[in-house]
Write a structure and sequence with these properties.
The complex is a heterodimer of chains A (227) and B (415). Helix content of chain A is 33%, strand content 26%. Chain A has 227 residues and is of the alpha/beta class. In chain A, a hairpin with a 6-residue loop joins strand 1 and strand 2. In chain A, helix 3 crosses helix 4 and helix 5 runs parallel beside helix 6. The radius of gyration of chain A is 17 Å and the shape is globular. The two termini of chain A are 22 Å apart. In chain B, strands 1, 2, 3, 4, 5, 6, 7, 8, 9, 12, 13 and 14 form a 12-stranded mixed beta sheet that branches. A two-stranded antiparallel ribbon of chain B has the order 10-11. In chain B, strand 10 and strand 11 form a beta hairpin. Classes of the chains: A alpha/beta (227), B alpha+beta (415).
């Protein structure tokens, strides 16, 4: 069974008569170790799909299983633990804690894990080394460039050694050079450490560097091809 | 989750949002300090007023001229100041043992403010005409010189004792005893100086000039009547009977049949204390109302800062949830933050409130020359702390609770 199993997934916003479907019956599977990009124009439902896959939001109809279990098979606390241990998130807007050091930002997920505090520094440093920011650990997030901020966010997503990294337009706020650096890091994580990566983008040049492209249009899969 | 680290997280967030934390703490500090100060001053004032009255002694009766005022707005309260219904004739009648058998001591008093001068220096103290009973009743004895004698009262001797402030104003550091001060072109010899005493009941002893009542009537005020007659009896149990005796004596003397037509009235220390207790409890009630308003204002301030600060951190809550925080984790963090803020505000507020109340009591004692007692406003401290902490916790935690219930993505994209 695939790590991620999606069957006829629907997400409908609004329940006051004016129903707006964001996802309109989507089915696919993603194996562990894959590097998948989801592309499509804005409003095609790609962000909604990622949020549902990351248990950040709940789908309306259909079926979604992560590691053979769905949203309703977990309690709220268990969902939080799944997000903490098995998933890593990278957002377009970085979402770092303001006026907080790089090291403390990266440690944030460890706070909610059952890992001993004595190991936190080593784990955080390892993640920071993986994104090449070891010279910046004592800088506050506001002192970093956009590319560096996104690398901190990736380190934060990595620190709990998750099975999947969900990246929602990670290069969207970056220039092409910094954006490419981010993609290079993600590629390396996929190849060397075997992290499954799900990447949302609207840039075809970036999507073409992944192993598989799922193209969404109006809440439906338009095409799904392996590269 | 590690409690130690949660505590640290909370402290880090407080440090990150330094100005917000300080503002909230300040709101709590001001609320608590204000209510403590107000309550402390209220209690102090009450004790001061009552202790002054009680210093009169429970066996004291005061006879005043005019009709008894029915309330603070009754004009007869002012008429009483000018009424001349109590004169030597009345004094003699009251002194008569067959009229008022239980009378132990009796002293007429005349008083007003007049200009006093000595070699170019002038001052306007309270001029008090009395007898040496004044010393016993108010516990003021001269530190230099001596009181006037009964002989001097009878002979309308031109002698006076002066309060310490009067002495300093007129004589500075030089000796006053033996010198002659001038009041209304009359020269009076200073025969004594009172030590620092402050306010006693209706006059300030430090700013006084005390002389035989006969002298004051004849040479200073030019009147024949008295402003008060103070009577003391052997014990408190004789008060009701003596009050009756006084009323009957004066009514007979003035041919009054109907008590409603009395041109004098009699008050006892107990009655005055009761009246003042009503006044001071109204005062206290008023102060509590003011304090309540200051607490509401403080509470609204705390509420606002907490509400805004927690609401603007909805995105942070969303992020923390996305990274694996449970609802409990979020609540715990904000609970600790709110407790830290309200707790430190509470401690600082109580300290500041105590210090300021103490300083205020000290300052009032020093500058007004009164014996203002410091009372630790425990009620104020508890009330202020309870309200601030309650408001701080509710409005610190409730928005966080609401935010923690949102789905992570809803909180993350919250604007």
């Amino acid at each position: 069974m695939a790590l991620i199993e999606v069957k006829d997934l629907k997400k409908i916003y609004g329940n006051d008569g004016t129903e707006t479907p964001a996802l309109n019956g989507v089915s696919f599977g993603i194996e562990a170790g894959d590097f998948v990009s989801i592309i499509g124009p804005s409003g095609s439902g790609k962000s909604t799909l990622l949020h549902i896959l990351g248990f950040l939001d709940k789908h309306t109809k259909g079926d979604y299983k992560f590691d053979a279990k769905g949203f309703n098979d977990y309690s709220k606390t268990e969902i939080a633990h799944v997000r903490n241990k098995k998933m890593g998130f990278v957002f377009q807007a970085f979402n770092l804690l303001p006026r907080t050091k790089v090291l403390d930002n990266v440690k944030l997920p460890l706070l909610y894990s059952d890992i001993k505090e004595s190991k936190w520094n080593d784990l955080a440093m390892e993640a920071i080394r993986a994104v090449g920011l070891e010279h910046r650990i004592n800088h506050e997030s506001s002192q970093l460039s956009g590319g560096e901020k996104q690398r901190v966010a990736i380190a934060r997503a990595l620190v709990n050694d998750p099975q999947v990294i969900f990246a929602d337009e990670p290069t969207g706020n970056l220039d092409s050079k910094s954006g490419q650096a981010i993609i290079d890091i993600l590629k390396k994580l996929n190849q060397e450490k075997g992290h499954t990566i799900l990447l949302i983008t609207h840039e075809i040049e970036i999507a073409e560097q992944t192993k598989r492209i799922i193209r969404l249009l109006d809440g439906k899969i338009e095409s799904d091809k392996k590269l | 989750m590690k409690i130690k680290y949660t505590l640290r997280t909370a402290f880090i967030s407080l440090k990150i949002n330094k100005s917000r934390s300080i503002l909230t703490i300040l709101g709590i500090v001001i609320g608590i300090t204000a209510i403590m100060l107000i309550m402390s001053l209220g209690v102090g004032a009450q004790e001061l007023i009552l202790s002054d009255i009680q210093s009169l002694g429970a066996n004291t009766i005061i006879v005043m001229p005019g009709r008894e005022p029915k309330g603070p707005t009754d004009p007869s309260a002012i008429e009483s100041l000018y009424s001349d219904s109590l004169k030597q004739r009345e004094l003699d009648a009251l002194k008569n043992k067959s009229n008022v058998p239980k009378l132990k001591e009796i002293m007429p008093i005349v008083f007003s403010v007049e200009t006093v001068s000595f070699s170019g220096e002038t001052f306007r103290p309270t001029i008090l005409g009395a007898s040496d009973l004044l010393a016993k009743i108010f516990d003021i004895y001269p530190s230099q010189g001596a009181y006037f004698t009964d002989e001097q009262i009878k002979s309308k001797a031109k002698v006076a004792l002066i309060g310490i402030k009067t002495k300093e104003e007129l004589f500075g550091d030089s000796d006053a005893v033996g010198q002659k001060i001038k009041i209304k072109d009359q020269a009076l010899e200073v025969i004594g100086v009172f030590p620092k005493k402050g306010q006693v009941l209706f006059f300030n002893a430090d700013e006084s000039v005390v002389m035989p009542y006969t002298t004051a009537q004849q040479y200073v005020f030019g009147i024949k009547h008295f402003n008060r007659i103070i009577i003391q009896v052997e014990s408190e149990s004789e008060i009701p009977r003596t009050v009756q005796d006084i009323e009957i004596t004066l009514r007979n003397l003035h041919n009054i049949d109907n008590p409603d037509n009395d041109d004098f009235f009699v008050a006892t220390q107990g009655e005055i204390a009761d009246t003042l207790k009503t006044v001071t409890s109204v005062l206290t009630l008023f102060l509590v109302a003011v304090a309540a308003i200051s607490l509401i204002v403080g509470g609204v301030g705390i509420m606002n800062v907490m509400l805004v600060s927690v609401t603007e951190r909805t995105r942070e809550i969303g992020l923390r949830k996305a990274l694996g925080a449970t609802e409990k984790n979020i609540l715990f963090q904000f609970l600790i933050e709110a407790i830290t803020i309200t707790g430190s505000g509470g401690v600082v507020g109580i300290l500041l409130g105590s210090i300021l109340s103490f300083v205020a009591a000290l300052g009032l004692s020093y500058f007004m020359g009164i014996n203002w007692a410091f009372a630790f406003p425990l009620n104020g401290a508890i009330l202020g702390l309870a309200v601030s902490v309650f408001v701080g916790l509710i409005f610190g935690i409730h928005p966080a609770y609401k935010a923690s219930k949102k789905s992570p993505i809803e909180a993350l994209i919250y604007e």
